[in-house]
Each structure stands twice: as structure tokens, then as C-alpha cells.
Amino acid sequence: MSELEEKEEDSEEEPKLKYERLANGVTEILQTDAASCMTVHDKFLALGTHFGKVFLLDVQGNVTQKYEISSVKINQISLDESGEHVGICSEDGKVQVFGLYTREGFHESFDCPIKVVALHPQFSKSNNKQFVTGGNKLFLYERNWLNRWKTSTLHEGEGSITNIKWRANLIAWANNVGVKIYDISTKQRITNVLRDNTCLRPDMYPCSLCWKDNTTLIIGWGSSVKICSVKERDPTEMRDLPSRYVEIVSAFETEFFISGLAPLADQLVTLYYVKENSDHMEEEFRARPRLDIIQPLPESCEEISSDALTVRNFQENECRDYRLEHSEGESLFYIISPKDIVVAKERDQDDHIDWLLDKKKYEEALMAAEISFKNIKRHDVQKIGMAYINHLVEKGDYDTAARKCQKVLGKNMDLWENEVYRFKTIGQLKAISQYLPRGDLRLRPAIYEMILHEFLMTDYEGFATLIREWPGELYNNMTIVQAVTNHLKKDPTNSILLTTLAELYTYDQRYDRALEIYLRLRHKDVYQLIHKHNLFSSIEDKIVLLMDFDKEKAVDMLLDNEDKISTDRVVEELKDRPELLHVYLHKLFKRDHHKGQKYHEKQISLYAEYDRPNLLPFLRDSTHCPLEKALEICQQRHFVEETVFLLSRMGNCRRALQMIMEELGDVDKAIEFAKEQDDAELWEDLISYSIDKPPFITGLLNNIGTHVDPIILIHRIKEGMEIPNLRDSLVKILQDYNLQILLREGCKKILVADSLSLLHKMHRTQMRGVRVDEENICEACHVTILPSDTAQPFSVVVFHCRHMFHKECLPSQGTIPGVQYCNICSAKRRGPGSGILDMKK
Fold first, then answer.
1. Which domain holds residue 361?
2. pTM (2 decimals)?
């Protein structure tokens, strides 16, 4: 890939940060002075210069306070977390620590330059009045209870101290040898991280230190980055060792020299110094500092973004001239150089949308704005949408532009109308037509009519589609009807225009007009229109047209609505079309055999002419057709089966059988007919007719076994007559006879078994006792069956039928001595009940 292609590919990646110069008072300061250091608090900034001045600035760069500290370079400014105290050191050895809002302070001058100073993060608290300074030695200053400052040396002998960072109880500093970490709570030094790039001068390529959190220190030195984690040591392993130790969790080399580091979530922001002899860079980028966002890995890093910064006088700056400070609260990054201060901040959603619009990625910009509409401040969703629509129109993508109108324009009627007229101007009304508002929100009728006229002029099918899809309230119906009518004058047979006109008439409730068109076109919706709008009075004179179109649907509709169009009216309309009349009357008869009874006579000839297969079922089911008329028609047309049925129904069974035998020659049908009539004389006639016809004799032998004694037929067969399949027929007769015998025997066995079972059941039932108590009465005298005084003698007779009598109330015994019968059951002929119990006392 060429360098140009690489550049184009890089330009498609959105930057992670945005930049602006810190102006206002800073601009004036740097015109006559140069920045040497700066520290950042959430509320304000503190800037030190080469001429020994310290300026307090607001976040816009306006000077709020100025301090004349020295006449030479300010090396370091330190603030506590509260922003109430500041520590300053300068190249001439001066150290000042004072309160911004109090008079307390520390002022000291040393005989050597003091490069760094760091206040305790909680310096404002009385028990944390501590700070450290670094020159040739690292001094710790503590204020005791007598309000005096006590000095102790924490480290010396390894060259000049170039950087100090204090976080919680941990102090990290860098000298010529490496980086040390000191635990002020235990007063122990817990680690020494050696410098990797020993060939580089520490004063030209100073160490960058940054605490990510209370236990994570980031070290950048030369082109080397190390991330150190401070951990608690296991108490069992302490012995004489410090209570904490440091583990390097990530160490890697970078492409350029590091001028500053800052954390950004789990990533790192790195400020690089790029040397002029980096021959792989383009000429215009040489020596510009770079601000990269990288993702640290255990032994390497992944570049997320990279920006080359054009700071003022970058060609004259060295690695030590750049610093990177950050504000943890707002993720602001300050790039400090002698003549320029640049602020980098994370891009917000507005910046993201700006970039997308600049790259003409309008759809993504619109989506981003819709998702974050509550958070964006400089952009408006609708304006972005309009820009997107304009872009699509310029590209010629009219369909997409019209589709986006639905989403972007929303309920703004003025914008909708403007867009419609714009699409008309460019000749693309068709594109926007399907997306116009058509619900509760509507445009002026003229807008919709303008689009319909456009379609009517150029696209009949599109016009018809819009008429079907658009509610009729959107436009003036009469105006469109008139326009369609005018076009039909030029093309009167155009089915699309006719159908559309019918739909317009339907909406306008001129159903008769719509019905005429539908019938003319034989349109499938004609029946739905009739049902939906109850147009039965309008179709009384159009029944033939309806049936010509679809006989089945028409007849079903007419029969379902007999209360609206009578049968007589339908028959009258169809009298000149007998084939249609037959279809109607046939379906009527199928629904109800009695409804059209006065037309049954007429139906005979209709069935004979148009539907003979259904003539015989009609004759069987109808009880109202005249048999003589039917017989006459069937005989005229030589309909043998129908004639046979009519003759048999009229009682002339012999003539009917004769026709079957003579005209049909079908012995099986003749036998079936004889079986149906079950008449001995018919059987005699059938035998007599068949006796000289061997095939008929075979049929009779095979079928009459259950109705006529086969011996009668066999005796009448002439001797010597050759009968086909005689042996098989005789075998079948014998088999049928044997089957009958077996059936009789089986029935007899079943009958005997059932009788015996019932006899046993009756015997068991009659052997059971019968309860007799004071509630029972005598069936003769209707007095309680038991006497009130049971001590007196009494006699009671109880029959198996459960009727009870006093013995003296029974009539005399019958003809059989010793046997009595219940006179109630005997009278009702329910069968005799003999006495089952004779109770005496």
C-alpha cells in the first residue's frame, strides 16, 4: 500500500480527541515570556514561566492572580487536592509553600537549584503539613506541634532529583539511576525501578511519572514505558522486608521519546517528542509533537489514535520542553510547551456528529443524533436530517431521500409541503408519493391532488395503487372523478381507469355507478360490493349479468338473500336463459326440496335438457313433480332408467321390469328391482322371462337364493339347456344354504344360552326376601298391611310383583289348586305373579 493510500485510510478514522489553544491571558503571557511548568486543578490552573512568575488561571486561560516568585525559571508548581495550598520551586533554589487563602507559608532559599516540589495531597489538614523538595537531595519537610518545620533527608547520592509525584501515602521520584517509591506511613522505601535508556541524558530526556490510582504508577523514560502496581506483602514473608512491594505489570518500548503520560480509563495518553532525524516521517510532520492514545499490553501496546500537534515554535523545542498535565475530573489534557499551551479533551457526541457530517456520513450522523438527542448541544436532529435529504437529492437517490422525509420531517407540515414542491420541481413526485402523511396528520388536499394528477398523466397503474392506498378524505373526490372521466373519453375501454373510477364511486357512495362498472369489467369485487352496501335492489335487473360472470357465486348470493330478492323475481329474470335458470333452481332444490315446489314441473324438462345425471335423484327426492308429465318427457327422450323408476312409482312394476329386461338387458338390475319391490308375481315374471335365456338363468341362480327357493327355478330349466357357469352357481346355492343353516344353529344356541341365563337371574331375584313394614298397604282394601296390634294373629300374601294383600282380601283361588295370582297384574296382562310369601301369625 502506498503512503498516499495509508494517509487516506487514516483520514477515515475518527479522532479520539479534539484540540484548542489556551488563549486569553495565556496568549499575552507567552508573547513576552515562556511557559516552564504548569499544574492542573479541577477549578483552576497554575502556570510557571521562565521569568520566575506564577499565574493562576481559570479554565479559559484568564489570569485571576499573579505571583512574582523569582527572576529565573520556575521549575515546578504543586497543589494539594483541595486547591488551597501551592508549592513552588525555582532554578535559583527558592522554595515557597503558602496558602492561597491564608497567610501561613514556608519560604526557603537553597544554594542549589530545586527542580521539583510536591505537597502532601491532604496538605490542608493540620496533621498532613508535609512536602518534599528535590535538588541534589530529596528532603521531607514536616511541621511539628510547635509549628516549626522539621527537615529529614529521604534520599541522596544518585544525582539530581528530576521528578516527584505524591499520591496518598506513596511518594515516587526519579533521579539519574531510576525511580524510587517511598511509603510515608511506614517510612520505608519499597522499590527501585532502574532506568532503561541509560545512554540518554536524564536532563534532556527527563522521566515522566503519573499515578493512575493510589497503587498504580506509570513511568515513561526515553522510549520506555513501565506500569507498576504497589501490592501488600504477605505478613508471613515480611521478615525485614517492607510491608509493600512493586510488581511491573506492563513494560514496553515506544516508537518515539516520551515527554508526558496521563491515564484515560484503561488506556494511556502519551505525549511524544519526535526527533528531526526520524526519516520515516513526512517532511511536514517532522519535529511536531504527537499525542497518542495507546492500549497497554503486558509486553507491548496497541495504538488507538495518533495526532501530530502543530504547536508554536515546535521546531525549536526539545523533549524536556514539553509537559503533559491532566485534569482527572473532566478528562482534559494540557500540552505545555514554552510558547504554546494546547488543551486536548475527549470528543463528545457533538464532535462525533461534526466529523460524520464532514465525511458526508449523514445517515450515521442522523442515527447518532437520534440516539443522543438529550446530550447534544450544538446540533439539531431535524437539521441533520434535512442535510441528509439534500445530500441524497444531490446524489440523485430520490427514493431514499423521500423515505427519509417520513422520519425527518415528522409533523412539520410546512417542511413537508416545501419538500413536495421541491420534488415536483425536479420531476420526482412519484418518489415521495408513497411516503406522504396519510393518518391523523395530513397535508392540504391540493398536495395530494397534484400528485394524483401527476400519476394520472404518466402512470395509470401507479394512480390506481394510490387510490387504493390513500384514504378518500385526503383529496377532493369529485375533482379526481372528473379527471378520470376525462381520460376515459380518450380511452373508454381502459380497465385500470374503469376499476379506479369504480373505487372512487364506491368511496363517494355512488354504488350503482360502481356496480355498473364492476359488472361491465366482470370484476371479482362486485359481490363484495353488493353485500357490503346492500345493493340488492340495484341488481334485480342485472341477475343475468351476475350469473354470466360467476354462476356459483351469483346463485349462492341470491339464495342467501331470498328475503331481498324473491325466487319468483329471479325466475322471471332468468326465463330467457333456461341454462342459468336450471342452475338456480337446482341449487334451490338442493337447499330445500319444498321451497320451489311450483317450479318442479318446469325443472323436469330443465334437468332432461341440461343435467340428466341429476334427473333421477330429483325424481326420487321430489314429492311435488307430476309423474305423468315426467313419464311423458322421459319416454319421449328414451330415458330408460328414469322411465323404469317412474313406472314403478306409479305402480306399473311389471312394465318397469319388462323395460329393464328388454331394453336394458340387465339381469342384475332386474333382480335388484325385484328385490326392492319384494313381490312374488314379479319374481315369477322374471323367472318366466329368463327361463329361455341361459345368461339370465345364471344371474338368477347366483342372486335369488335368499328371496325365492332355487328349486323352483331349477325345476323349470329345460333338460339339455346349456347354462354358463352352472356348476359354480349350484355350488354357491349350496354354500348359501349351508350358511343359512349355520346361522340358524348359531342363533338357536345363543337363544338357549340367553334364556337359561335369564331364567337363573329370575330365579335368584324371586328367591330374595321382600321387606314388609307399616308403610306398605293392602292393594285391595288400601289399609296398612300390618295391623296396629301385632300381638293379634294376621295373614298377609306378597307376590313377586311386590303387590301385597291381606289374605282375606284376595279372591278365591284359581283353577290350579294351591296357586294364586296377583289380580292387579293379571288384569293389566303384565304376566302372572304367584305368591312368594304367606305371612301368618
1. 348-443
2. 0.56
